[in-house]
C-alpha cells in the first residue's frame, strides 16, 4: 500500500497493529489459548489439545510466510528484531528461552497471556507486566547515570562471544539451500507446515475442539497479517517508493522539519507480534510523556491485546478482579516476572515472538528458543509436582534429578524419588 506522506503510512500501520491485536486478545481470552497452559496440560495430564493449538498457530504462520515471501509480499529478511541474523546466538537463545520458560510457569503465563489476564481483571498480572517492562527496558537502555545496560553488565562479555557466524542468514532455507535459498524455504517451510498440520489434526479430540482450532487459526493468522501489513507499506517520495525505515533514514532530505520524527528507525521495519520488548517500549512511551515519536507497532500491539481481552471479558461477563492468594504466590510471580524480563529480551522473544513469529521465518535461533522455553517450563512443573507430592522428603536436587530422569535426560539409576 502506497501513501503520499510518512504520517499517513505510520498511522495505518499503528492502527492495523492495534486492530489485529484487539481481535487476537479477544480470541485468546475466549478460547483460553495459552502456551504455558499447553505445556502444563501436556506434562501434568497428557492432554495435547492446547499444545496442538500452539502448533497450529505455528503452521499457519509458517505456511503463510512461505507463500507470501515467495510472492515478495513480505520482507522478513529485514525484520525487527532480526530473526535471520547471520550471527547465530545459540547460547542467548537457549539460556533466554530456558529462563523464560521457568519464569512463565512461576508467573502463571507468558507475556501475551499476562496482557490477556490484565484485560480480564487480574491485578497480579499488572505487577508481572511492570516488572517485565522495567527489566526488558533496561536490558536495552542504559541505566540512569550510566552508559551500561543490564545486558552489557550481566551478559555481553561472556555470552556474545559464543555466537556463531553462519553467513548471510540463519534461516533453514539459506543454510541448507545456499544459492537456492528461496526454493529451499518453499520446500522446507511447506514440508514442516504440512507435517505439523498432519500431526495436529490426527487427533480426533482436537478436531472436535472448536476453541482450540479457533485459537490456533486466529493467532497464526494474526502473526501473518502483521508481517504482510508492515512489509507492504511504502511512501511515495517524489516518485520513489520508500519503506518507512528508508524514509526515516533520509528524513533530513525528505521532511520539512524534525517534528514527529520517530525516535528510532528500527521499530519501523517489517515485524509481527511479540510481547516482551513491546512492554519495554510501552514503558518508554509512558515515561516519555506519551510522545507520538515514541509510539511504535509494539506499543499498539500491547494496548490492543489488553483492550481485546477486556472487551471479551465484559461481553462474556467473565471480568473479575484477582489478587495474590498468599505471600508465596506473590514471590513466585515476582521471580517469574524477573526471569521473563531477562529471558525474553536475551532470547529476542517469547512464546509468541520466537515460538510463532520467529519460527515462521525458519530461523534456527527461534527453534532453539522454542525448545528451551518448553524445556524450562516443563522441568519447573515437574519439580513443583515432586515437591508437592513428597513435601519435605523432596529436596530441590532430588526433585530436579527425578524430573530430568522422567524426561530421559539422566539415567534412571540416579533417581532418588519414585516416579509420580
List keywords for this structure.
420 residues, mainly alpha, two-stranded antiparallel sheet, 19 helices, 5 strands
Shape: globular
- Specify Rg, calculated over alpha carbons: 21 Å
Helix content: 55-70%
First-to-last CA distance? 57 Å
Give the tally of structural domains. 1
* Helix run count: 19
Assembly annotation: single chain
For the biggest sheet, the summary is:
3 strands, mixed
Describe the protein in words.
The chain has a three-stranded mixed β-sheet with strand order 1-4-5. A two-stranded antiparallel ribbon has the order 2-3. It is mainly α and about 425 residues long. The chain has 19 helices and five strands. Helix 1 packs antiparallel against helix 11 and helix 1 packs parallel to helix 15. About 65% of the residues lie in helices and about 5% in strands. It is globular and about 75 Å long. It has one domain. The model has no long low-confidence stretch (mean pLDDT about 95).
List the helices and strands and how they pair.
Layout: E1 2-3, H1 6-31, H2 35-45, H3 49-70, E2 87-88, H4 90-106, H5 111-119, H6 123-140, H7 150-159, E3 164-165, H8 172-177, H9 181-201, H10 204-207, H11 210-231, E4 234-237, E5 240-243, H12 244-249, H13 251-254, H14 277-287, H15 297-315, H16 327-346, H17 353-358, H18 364-390, H19 396-406
Parallel strand pairs: 1-4
Antiparallel strand pairs: 2-3, 4-5
Helix pairs in contact: 1-5, 1-11, 1-15, 2-3, 2-18, 3-9, 3-11, 4-16, 4-18, 5-6, 5-15, 6-14, 6-16, 14-15, 18-19
Amino acid at each position: 500500500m502506497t501513501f503520499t506522506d510518512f504520517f499517513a503510512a505510520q498511522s495505518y500501520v499503528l492502527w492495523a497493529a492495534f486492530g489485529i491485536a484487539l481481535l487476537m486478545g479477544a480470541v485468546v481470552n475466549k478460547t483460553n489459548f495459552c502456551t504455558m497452559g499447553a505445556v502444563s496440560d501436556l506434562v501434568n495430564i497428557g492432554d495435547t489439545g492446547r499444545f496442538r493449538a500452539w502448533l497450529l498457530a505455528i503452521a499457519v504462520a509458517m505456511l503463510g510466510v512461505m507463500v507470501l515471501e515467495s510472492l515478495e509480499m513480505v520482507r522478513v529478511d529485514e525484520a525487527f528484531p532480526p530473526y535471520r541474523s547471520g550471527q547465530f546466538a545459540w547460547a542467548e537463545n537457549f539460556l533466554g528461552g530456558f529462563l523464560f520458560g521457568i519464569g512463565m510457569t512461576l508467573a502463571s503465563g507468558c507475556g501475551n497471556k499476562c496482557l490477556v489476564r490484565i484485560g480480564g481483571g487480574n491485578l497480579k498480572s499488572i505487577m508481572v507486566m511492570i516488572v517485565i517492562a522495567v527489566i526488558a527496558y533496561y536490558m536495552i537502555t542504559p541505566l540512569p547515570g550510566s552508559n551500561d545496560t543490564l545486558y552489557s553488565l550481566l551478559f555481553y562479555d561472556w555470552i556474545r562471544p559464543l555466537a556463531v557466524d553462519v553467513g548471510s542468514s540463519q534461516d533453514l532455507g539459506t543454510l541448507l539451500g545456499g544459492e537456492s535459498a528461496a526454493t529451499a524455504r518453499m520446500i522446507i517451510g511447506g514440508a514442516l507446515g504440512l507435517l505439523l498440520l498432519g500431526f495436529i489434526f490426527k487427533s480426533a479430540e482436537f478436531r472436535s475442539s472448536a476453541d482450540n482450532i479457533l485459537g490456533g487459526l486466529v493467532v497464526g493468522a494474526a502473526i501473518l497479517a502483521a508481517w504482510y501489513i508492515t512489509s507492504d507499506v511504502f511512501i511515495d517520495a517524489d516518485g520513489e517508493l520508500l519503506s518507512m525505515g528508508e524514509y526515516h533514514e533520509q528524513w533530513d532530505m525528505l521532511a520539512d522539519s524534525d517534528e514527529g520524527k520517530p525516535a528510532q528507525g528500527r521499530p519501523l521495519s517489517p515485524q509481527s507480534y511479540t510481547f516482551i520488548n513491546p512492554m519495554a517500549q510501552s514503558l518508554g512511551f509512558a515515561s516519555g510523556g506519551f510522545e507520538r515519536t515514541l509510539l511504535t507497532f509494539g506499543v499498539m500491539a500491547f494496548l490492543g491485546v489488553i483492550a481485546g481481552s477486556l472487551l471479551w471479558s465484559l461481553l462474556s461477563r467473565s471480568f473479575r478482579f484477582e489478587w495474590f492468594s498468599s505471600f508465596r504466590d506473590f514471590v513466585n510471580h515476582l521471580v517469574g516476572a524477573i526471569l521473563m524480563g531477562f529471558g525474553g529480551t536475551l532470547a529476542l522473544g517469547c512464546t509468541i515472538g520466537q515460538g510463532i513469529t520467529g519460527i515462521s521465518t525458519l530461523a534456527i535461533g527461534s527453534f532453539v528458543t522454542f525448545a528451551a522455553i518448553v524445556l524450562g517450563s516443563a522441568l519447573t512443573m515437574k519439580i513443583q509436582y515432586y515437591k508437592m507430592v513428597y513435601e519435605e522428603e523432596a529436596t530441590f536436587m532430588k526433585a530436579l534429578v527425578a524430573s530430568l530422569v522422567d524426561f530421559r535426560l539422566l539415567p534412571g539409576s540416579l533417581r532418588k524419588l519414585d516416579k509420580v
